[in-house]
Amino acid sequence: MRLTKYTHSCVRLDDGGRALVIDPGTFSETQLALDGVHAVLVTHEHADHLDAPALLAAAKADTALRVWAPAPVAESLAQLGDRVTAVGAGESFEAGGFTVRTFGGLHALVHPLVGAPVANVGYLVEGAVYHPGDSFMVPPVPVDTLLIPIHAPWSKISEVIDFTAAVRAPRAFQIHDAYLSDIGGALVDRLVGTVGATYGTTYSRLASTESVDL
Description:
It is built from 5 helices and 14 strands. With 214 residues, the protein is of the alpha/beta class. The strands form 2 sheets. It has a 7-stranded mixed β-sheet. Strands 7-8-9-10-11-12-13 form a 7-stranded mixed β-sheet, with helices on one face. The protein starts with a strand and ends with a strand.
């Protein structure tokens, strides 16, 4: 299976004739990521994870494209009809030929004064690759490849490190990194990589549009 990382939190998984995209947001190379893909998973409604106009345009151009997302997102994409499926935590289904399990349920809290957390679903694809969206929900199952939200308005570095240590995936890559400068990113990488290694996790940074074979 090949994983391609796009800017911020968008990733694409390819395996032979199968292809799936998670979180094609407005910060990402959405059109490139969605090219030839028939299955899209959306973790939550925020624009940096969902470029709705781009996704709807892709769905219009490709009538085979289907979307799985939390209920508020599914409702916002209602014009897709039965091509969009609302999902919550604790479900299992097939998307684009990949098996998918869902975890979590809520976005991490930014601040009580900002408002209540929105719905957020984390996805474990093929029992191997885990994308938590905007949360530090630790799935109660083994994870081979962890995608770590490395920097966000709702997190601090100690929580990022705790999440990495708790999941204990053999391999990890960064997501949710568009807010970091190169200098800040290097510092965060060093901290997460050093602590992660003590728990058996090899952490590596992927550049935008870079791919790695899992």
